[in-house]
């Protein structure tokens, strides 16, 4: 105890001799403030504990009239309540300094490291984090560029050949960070679907031979794997994912194509992705045979005439069909008139018999 007190007394005497160390014109540094407030807090805590042991009260105090942030604030009194108030203030300041210290930890450790390392021919720091934007360099470059332009103009005016070669601006040196094995493995290109099929067990039969459906295996493309993950997630969580109408239609088409052995990794059709070996490819002949008439490219089915009758035509078309129907009725009427009736035939036969007698 006596040794520590004598050492503290010697340090105080040295500080009194050297007044330059106490210059605080630009404010107190963070480290000095932290140490000072910690010592003051411990001192107040010891005094408050001693006063409580003696049985003194904590209610008497004489606070200053100025605010806590006032620069020239008066000192507190010597009562026990004043010690308690100063201890609370010191505790608040210590909590605030911890936040500032966490923000300035990098600068503080950098300064401490520089002071600890021996200087050999000047301080050289190769810190990758030291490369940051410096707005002042832009102003300096602009001033130097204007000075160079004026000197070049004066040289050309004086008859001296100026250097017109373009020289790009110098770039700041950047540290080379070598990629790790995991990063190089992630940057590899994806394996093609044709090679991915070779990883299957050769002893197992192909999908085409067992199911009769064309196309590659269902999980050969990334889209198929994504749909499988969606299905597993919905089945495990007993829920349906909410998606847009176009996405839901696309998912339904892709699932139909996968169910029929289609490959989602090939081609794009007029409606987006076109699955090879899917629903349209498996039943293409049937769909073409029953497709509707489109510009005379298809014969249509048996219901095409009913579809035409169901459509409402314009007045000109209705007049044409009505006129054709009337002409057809007149022709049938003339044919019926030219044909003799049974009475006329029997009358003709009777006349022939009478003439023979």
Automatic annotation (TrEMBL):
Any one Pfam family match given in the protein's UniProt record, by short name: Sas10_Utp3
Disordered: annotated span: 148-171, 290-357
A biological process from GO: maturation of SSU-rRNA from tricistronic rRNA transcript (SSU-rRNA, 5.8S rRNA, LSU-rRNA)
GO CC annotations, alphabetized: small-subunit processome
InterPro entries xref list: Sas10/Utp3/C1D
Compositional bias of kind Basic and acidic residues: 304-349
Signal peptide interval: none
Protein's UniProt name: Uncharacterized protein
Species assigned in the record: Galerina marginata (strain CBS 339.88)
Lineage: Eukaryota, Fungi, Dikarya, Basidiomycota, Agaricomycotina
């Amino acid at each position: 105890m006596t040794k520590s007190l004598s050492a503290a007394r010697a340090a105080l005497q040295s500080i009194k001799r050297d007044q330059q160390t106490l210059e605080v014109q630009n404010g107190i540094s963070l480290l000095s403030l932290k140490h000072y407030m910690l010592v003051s807090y411990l001192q107040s805590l010891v005094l408050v504990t001693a006063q409580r042991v003696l049985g003194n009260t904590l209610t008497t105090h004489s606070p200053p009239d100025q605010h806590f942030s006032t620069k020239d604030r008066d000192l507190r009194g010597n009562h026990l309540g004043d010690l308690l108030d100063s201890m609370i203030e010191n505790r608040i300041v210590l909590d605030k300094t911890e936040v500032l210290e966490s923000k300035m930890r990098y600068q503080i450790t950098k300064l401490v490291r520089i002071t600890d390392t021996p200087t050999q021919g000047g301080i050289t720091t190769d810190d990758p984090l030291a490369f940051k934007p410096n707005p002042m360099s832009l102003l300096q470059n602009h001033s130097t560029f204007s000075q160079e332009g004026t000197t070049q103009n004066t040289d050309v005016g004086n008859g001296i050949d100026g250097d017109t070669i373009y020289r790009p601006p110098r770039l700041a040196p950047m540290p080379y960070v070598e990629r790790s094995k995991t990063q190089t493995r992630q940057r590899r290109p994806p394996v093609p679907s044709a090679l991915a099929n070779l990883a299957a067990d050769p002893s197992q039969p192909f999908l085409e031979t067992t199911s009769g459906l064309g196309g590659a295996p269902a999980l050969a493309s990334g889209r198929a794997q994504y749909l499988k993950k969606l299905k597993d997630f919905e089945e495990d969580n007993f829920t349906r994912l909410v998606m847009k109408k176009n996405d839901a239609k696309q998912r339904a088409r892709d699932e139909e194509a996968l169910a029929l052995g289609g490959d989602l990794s090939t081609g794009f059709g007029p409606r987006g992705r076109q699955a090879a070996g899917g629903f349209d490819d498996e039943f293409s002949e049937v769909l073409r045979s029953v497709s509707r008439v489109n510009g005379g490219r298809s014969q249509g089915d048996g219901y095409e005439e009913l579809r035409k009758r169901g459509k409402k035509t314009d007045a000109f078309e209705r007049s044409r069909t009505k006129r054709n129907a009337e002409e057809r009725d007149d022709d049938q009427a003339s044919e019926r008139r030219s044909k003799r009736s049974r009475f006329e035939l029997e009358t003709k036969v009777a006349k022939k018999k009478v003439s023979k007698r």
